[in-house]
C-alpha cells in the first residue's frame, strides 16, 4: 500500500501528453475532446453490424487495425474498449472479464503496438460476463454483495492495466470501487502509468437499450436501479462525484449526456480541477440517427449544437459513437 494519500497522487493524471491536454480544458471541439467507444468481439475476423446502432459494429481483433488506422490519421486520440463474447463462459463472478481469452485482454498489447500515441481506455464491468447480467457479484438472495464486487472489479481493472490500458473506467457503480482500484494499481506500482476515469455520476436510464443489445449485457432479472443513480437525484450526483474524488479518481464522468447537462454543470462547478467526461450513450446516438433518417433534423447541424451544449455545460471530453463522423466534420474543407 502506497504511503501517499490516493487523492494526493497527481502523477497518474498527467503522465501522457494527452492527459496533460485534458487537464487544460477549452470549449471548442477538437479530437482531444472525443473518445470513441469500440466493441471488441471474441471472434478474430468478425465485423458484426449492430442493428440497434446503425454504423456501429462489433469488431474482431483482426479488424481493428484497418478500422482504426484512417480514424487515427484524421486525429483520433482516445478510444474506450468494451469486450463482447459469443463464446466465453459466463458465470456468477464474471471470470471471463479478465481471462487470457478475453478479447480486450488480447487486443490491448496489439493496439498499444499499432497505435503508440492512442490513449486506450477500458470499460471495467462484470455485466457482459455474468450469468445474471448485473454489474457486480450477487448474494444468494439476489441483492448486491458490494464488498465482493469491488474486490472483483479491482482485479479486472488491474488485469486491463497490466495488459496495456492507460485508463481504466469502472462503469459498475459499486460503492468504493475507486479506492479499491487505486489501491490495486498502487500495490502494482502503476500509479504513474494508469489513470482512473470514474463513471462517477451514472444514472439508471432508458437510454442504454441499444448498448445492452450490442454488448449482450442486459440484466437477466430485475434492473440496475439499486446501484445506478436515480434519474432525478442531484444530491446523489453531488455525493457520488465528491466520494470518487476523495477515493482518488483522476477523471470524472456524467452519463447519459443530453438529459443530464444540468448535472454536468453541477459536477464541473463542484470539481473544476478535474477533467470531466460526458457519455453520449447508445440511446442518444440511435435517437439522433433515426430522427435524421426520418427527416426530422439535419444530423450534422443538431449534433454540433449538442456537442457545444455538452462543452458549454462543462464537459472536457465527449464519449460518442459519432466520433468518426465528427472527425470528418473537423477535417479542413477542400478549397476546390
Ligand atoms: O452507450 C451506452 O448505452 C452505454 C451503456 C453503459 C456502458 N458503460 C452501461 C449501461 C447499462 O447497460 O446499464 C453498461 C454498464 N456496465
Write the layout of secondary structure elements.
Blueprint: H1 17-22, E1 34-41, E2 47-49, E3 57-59, H2 61-73, E4 78-84, H3 103-114, E5 119-124, H4 146-163, E6 167-170, H5 177-187, E7 195-202, H6 209-215, H7 234-246, E8 251-255, H8 261-270, E9 276-280, H9 282-293, H10 299-313, E10 317-320, H11 323-330
Parallel strand pairs: 1-3, 1-4, 1-10, 4-5, 5-6, 6-7, 7-8, 8-9, 9-10
Antiparallel strand pairs: 2-3
Helix pairs in contact: 4-5, 7-8, 8-10
3-(2-aminoethyl)-4-(aminomethyl)heptanedioic acid (PB1) binds at residues 123, 125, 127, 135, 171, 208, 211-212, 217, 224, 281-282.
Describe the structure.
The chain has 336 residues and is of the alpha/beta class. It has helices at 17-22, 61-73, 103-114, 146-163, 177-187, 209-215, 234-246, 261-270, 282-293, 299-313, 323-330, and strands at residues 34-41, 47-49, 57-59, 78-84, 119-124, 167-170, 195-202, 251-255, 276-280, 317-320. It has a single domain, classed as TIM Barrel, CATH 3.20.20. Helices cover 37% and strands 16% of the residues. The chain has an eight-stranded parallel barrel, surrounded by seven helices. It is globular. The structure holds 3-(2-aminoethyl)-4-(aminomethyl)heptanedioic acid.
CATH fourth-tier homologous superfamily: Aldolase class I
**Main sheet: strand order:** 1-4-5-6-7-8-9-10
What is the fold-level CATH name, i.e. the topology?
Answer: TIM Barrel
Main sheet specs: 8 strands, parallel, barrel
Q: Whole-Å distance between the termini?
A: 61 Å
Percent of residues in beta strands? 15-25%
Number of helices: 11
| Extended strand count | 10
Main CATH class: Alpha Beta
How large is the radius of gyration?
19 Å
Hetero groups bound?
A: 3-(2-aminoethyl)-4-(aminomethyl)heptanedioic acid
Q: Structural class of the secondary structure composition?
A: alpha/beta
Low-confidence parts: none
Give the overall shape.
globular
SSE pattern: HEEEHEHEHEHEHHEHEHHEH
- State mean pLDDT (0 to 100 scale): 95
The CATH architecture term is Alpha-Beta Barrel
Amino acid at each position: 500500500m502506497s504511503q501517499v494519500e490516493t487523492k494526493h497522487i497527481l502523477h497518474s493524471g498527467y503522465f501522457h501528453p494527452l492527459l496533460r491536454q485534458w487537464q487544460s480544458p477549452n470549449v471548442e471541439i477538437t479530437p482531444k475532446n472525443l473518445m470513441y467507444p469500440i466493441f471488441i468481439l471474441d471472434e478474430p475476423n468478425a465485423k458484426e453490424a449492430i442493428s440497434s446502432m446503425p454504423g456501429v459494429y462489433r469488431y474482431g481483433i483482426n479488424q481493428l487495425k484497418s478500422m482504426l488506422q484512417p480514424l487515427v490519421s484524421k486525429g483520433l486520440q482516445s478510444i474506450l474498449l468494451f469486450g463482447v463474447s459469443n463464446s466465453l463462459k459466463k458465470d456468477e463472478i464474471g471470470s471471463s472479464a479478465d481471462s487470457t481469452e478475453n478479447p480486450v485482454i488480447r487486443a490491448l498489447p496489439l493496439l498499444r503496438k499499432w497505435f503508440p500515441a492512442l490513449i486506450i481506455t477500458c470499460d471495467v464491468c462484470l455485466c457482459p460476463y455474468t450469468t445474471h447480467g448485473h454489474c457486480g457479484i450477487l448474494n444468494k438472495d439476489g441483492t448486491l454483495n458490494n464488498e465482493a464486487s469491488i474486490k472483483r472489479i479491482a482485479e479486472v481493472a488491474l488485469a486491463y492495466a497490466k495488459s496495456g490500458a492507460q485508463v481504466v473506467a469502472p462503469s459498475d457503480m459499486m460503492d468504493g470501487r475507486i479506492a479499491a482500484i487505486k489501491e490495486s494499481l498502487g500495490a502494482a506500482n502503476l500509479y504513474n502509468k494508469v489513470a482512473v476515469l470514474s463513471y462517477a455520476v451514472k444514472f439508471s436510464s432508458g437510454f442504454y437499450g441499444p448498448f445492452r443489445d450490442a454488448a449482450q449485457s442486459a440484466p437477466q432479472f430485475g434492473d440496475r436501479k439499486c446501484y445506478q443513480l436515480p434519474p432525478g437525484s442531484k444530491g446523489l450526483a453531488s455525493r457520488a462525484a465528491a466520494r470518487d474524488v476523495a477515493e482518488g479518481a483522476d477523471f470524472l464522468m456524467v452519463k447519459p449526456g443530453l438529459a443530464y447537462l444540468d448535472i454536468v454543470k453541477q459536477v464541473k462547478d463542484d470539481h473544476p480541477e478535474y477533467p470531466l467526461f460526458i457519455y453520449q450513450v447508445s440511446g442518444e446516438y440511435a435517437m439522433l440517427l433515426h430522427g435524421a433518417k426520418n427527416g426530422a433534423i439535419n444530423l450534422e447541424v443538431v449534433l454540433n449544437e449538442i456537442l457545444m451544449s455538452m462543452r458549454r455545460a462543462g464537459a472536457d471530453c465527449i464519449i460518442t459513437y459519432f466520433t468518426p463522423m465528427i472527425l470528418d466534420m473537423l477535417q479542413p474543407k477542400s478549397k476546390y
